[in-house]
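Suppose a classmate hands you a notebook page containing two proteins, each written out with its sequence and a corresponding row of structure tokens. How would you begin to make sense of it? This section walks through that situation. The first entry is reproduced here exactly as it would appear on such a page.
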Amino acid sequence: MPDIQAVRPLSTPAVSPRVLVTAAGVVVLLLLLAYLVAFDQGAISQSGMYLHELMHDGRHLLGVPCH
């Protein structure tokens, strides 16, 4: 029979605030990325051609063929 003093109680692990802030930052960045992609593809606004052209020019600047 195990010693009662030696058995540790079950508890939920504590999550540090640093982990929570990092997770929140990652979620915000992913939502921003989804917004930009949806905006670029015209799902959010039909006037998103400025962002589309900016991305298009960026692809040409990097030497990525897109046509």
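The notebook's second entry, a different protein, reads as follows.
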Amino acid sequence: MITSIAHATIYVLNQDEALDFYKNKLGFEVGDDMKVEGDFRWLTVYPKSNSQLQLVLAEPKEGPMFTKDSADKIRSLIEEGAFGAGVFETENCQKTYEELVAKGVEFIQPPTEQLYGVEAMGIDNSGNWFSLVQR
């Protein structure tokens, strides 16, 4: 029986730049940062208040998971903003939105009342959208 989810993957264009964004803009902590095989880098981050689900910041590269063609296609889709990085909860969406805007984070939707709470939608430095949600 599966009991929990430990990691979810966000495909990024550059791991160093993504690490800077998630750590210094969103305030995430670094979980793991290591070379596993060859140039494969296992890089994870998580919100300070919850290390149970870590986000893997992965560059699509040719290797066991992708052919060169499929890695190139994924990179192209990232650049088009076709992927989401997830939904991040906050206790105060308006305050967090203002803090992140002050740090230079780009938003495509300001905090807006929804049926499930208040939501703002931002974009990471690779082009992945993410939601901030206050329930």
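A careful reader of the second entry would note: The two ends are 30 Å apart (CA to CA).
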